[in-house]
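In pairs, describe these two lines:
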Amino acid sequence: MDRISYLPDALRLQILYFLPIEDAIATGVLSKRWQNLCFSLTNINLHQPTFERRSRGRKEFKDFVYQTLVLQDGLHIDKFTLSVDLDDLSTIHVNSWIYFAVNRSVKEFNLSVLYGKLDRKLHWCLFTCNSLRVLTLGNVDLVLPSNIGLPKLETLKLNEVRFYDENLTNQLLSSCPSLVELFISDCDLGNVKVLRIVGSNLKILTLLDLYPIPDVEISTSCLLELAYFGYPPNISSETLSSLLRVDFRTVSPSNVINARRDMFYSRTSDIVMGLHNVFEMALQGFFIEYLTRVQDSLACLPTSCYSLQRLYLSMYPTDNQVQVIVLLLSNFPNLKQLRIQVRVGSNVLLNDIYILSKIKLVCNSQLLLLIRSNNLCPQSGSTWMKGATHKNCLLS
């Protein structure tokens, strides 16, 4: 007895979404009820390598996509995911599928180019779609139209994307008034020298591994989380005050031209001075080194920040960096967890024990302190030094 066919349509539709799209479409031969469901899919996931592996050359991917889209008589599409090999497929086909999705008021659109590259611009309608709430692009050349407007877009994720025009790139980021989350990673920024991040609703921002490394300006009113890798960014005081979780990883000051170094040194002190409400903070890469080079750095570090409970630091075992960290810690009275990664140094164990003894003097008695160093046990690799402050110090 076919019990599945007697399930409610909504439940059977959920079952179809767990199947590869070609299998979901194939259920249409079972009965009229299944056929009607196949014509009403609002979540379409088209993955070219998976299709070609399963079809074994019996049918071309583009032909299957067109046949699938023709069958859909639904009024809208909730989610459209497209993973393609452009070595075997023209961008003309991709753009026709984009046009189809936009015309069906797509809410979430995901495009990933697995192999090859676009031989023309993505269809302009993708960047003026009034219904779009989530847009994810992977490994595409982003040649933007002059007219951009995504009024309902809440999430924008760009991975391995190549940008070409600074003005249009910043226009894209400023033309999404509803944007809540922005993720940009492993992207080639080309001629983009200054990346400006604005948005009154932006709450989560991730900027990682952008090349060439741009100058970044961030001005938002309610940003809560920031993960960042690059030169110290220029962040407005309003943005700094709103942040609850931050992870800064800065590149070496030696990579900065002399004329810009003082500016970046000053920005690092502005950042730590402005984080009044942060709950969790990571200062990694060369961030502490930048702080040591600020003129009168000890006078520029923050007054007490009572909200901070978790702190992760990366440092080199130098007197200047130890001094900065000790001063930092004296201003975080409610800190509950501290992790410090000590970079390679010459005076191996002595440096690490010295660091721990200095830090112990300024930490509250309930703090969990972990110091990681590749130097503590050369034979066994990196370890964590664990200390209960004020009382004892254990090596584990």
Residues 376-385, 387-396 have pLDDT under 50 and may be disordered. The longest helix spans residues 258-274. The radius of gyration is 26 Å. The chain is about 30% helix and 25% strand.
